[in-house]
Design a protein that fits this description.
By secondary structure, this protein is mainly beta. It has a domain at 1-17 and 65-118: Beta Barrel (Elongation Factor Tu (Ef-tu), domain 3). The chain has helices at residues 21-25, 110-116, and strands at residues 6-12, 17-19, 63-65, 69-81, 86-89, 102-105. The strands form two sheets. Strands 5-4-1-6 form a four-stranded antiparallel sheet, with no helix packed on it. It has a two-stranded antiparallel ribbon with strand order 2-3. The longest helix has 7 residues, at 110-116. The protein is elongated, with a radius of gyration of 22 Å.
Length: 118
């Protein structure tokens, strides 16, 4: 890689463990006052009524969050130090400190498309 190149960085996102619907999907939760003692972070209703009498497939619920493959696209290479095996890119990369990353040539870079004449 050279300075000015655009790269895609692939890594594993930080695991968040078992997360509720407010953290995992951004649900609003219930009222904080007016007699609500235990519904502040609950998901609310998860289905309709007698018809269809079931919960729809794909209903967003609590569960494991993070620890998934994530690709940060089109990050610009700012510095290359071959002797010390260092590569600095502009922006954030997925995963925890010390995590393994896969760095590859950008696939959707507009700069790359301009150079190719697309």
């Amino acid at each position: 890689f050279e300075v000015g190149d655009f790269v895609d960085v692939v890594g594993r996102s930080k695991g968040r463990g078992f997360a509720g619907v407010m953290k995992r999907h951004g649900f609003g939760g219930g009222p904080q006052t007016h007699g609500q003692s235990d519904r502040q972070r609950a998901p609310g209703s998860i289905g309709s009524t007698t018809t269809p009498g079931r919960v729809w497939k794909g209903q967003r619920m609590a569960g494991r969050m993070g620890n998934a493959r994530v690709t940060a696209q089109n990050l610009r290479v700012e510095m290359v130090d071959a002797e010390r095996h260092l590569l600095a890119v502009r922006g954030s990369v997925p995963g925890a400190k010390g995590g393994l990353l896969m760095i590859k040539q950008a696939r959707k870079s507009k700069e790359l498309a301009k150079r190719r004449g697309e």
